TrEMBL record:
This is Transferase. It comes from the Bacteria. The keyword Magnesium does not apply. InterPro entries: Hexapep, Hexapep_transf_CS, Hexapeptide_acetyltransf, Trimer_LpxA-like_sf. Keywords: Acyltransferase, Repeat, Transferase. One of its GO terms (cellular component) is cytosol. PANTHER family: ACETYLTRANSFERASE C18B11.09C-RELATED (PTHR23416:SF23), SIALIC ACID SYNTHASE-RELATED (PTHR23416). One of its GO terms (molecular function) is O-acyltransferase activity. The keyword tRNA-binding does not apply. Belongs to the transferase hexapeptide repeat family. It comes from Skermanella stibiiresistens SB22.
Amino acid sequence: MGRYCSIAPEVMIGSNEHPVDWLTSSRVTHVADLHDWARFCAPDRVDEIRSQRVPFKDACKITNIGNDVWIGQGVFIKAGVTIGDGAIVAGRSVVVKDVPAYSIVAGTPATVKRMRFPDATVERLTRLRWWRYSIFDLFGIPFDKIDEALDRIEEKVEAGGLAEYAPERITMDRLREAFQPPIPQGIVQAAE
């Protein structure tokens, strides 16, 4: 997932795919130790069964979400789909195919309704890749005027006034710590 994405509640990304043109779509044929069923159902043949596993290359496809993507509430995204930079996915859409950069998609299945910007603007956005920079270094730029914003960012980049943003990696432990509610003062005193 890229930077500066907006993900609404109830978005789901599909999990494992199953073979639809095999004798069975069950994962037991390509995940031989699935829930250890072989040991339970055929304890004398565990090694034989595991050795006959047939790989299913599409089982766990990686889903890619670009930078500055907005995904609306309740969207379902099929595993393995790529959502391009700057794309918008309307709420309750079902995304089963790749979404082009800077497109707006909606529906079941999701289809392109329109592009966010004219081709020339999309080319500038793609070339500039503005999300490489800290949003805080871009304040003062008119975000609501796309051409002027791009002009100003391009000027800053050419003048060497913007450094690429390289944040430190944040762990789940640090997030938990940062978002724990503060303990009210009276409780702290009572505990001491």
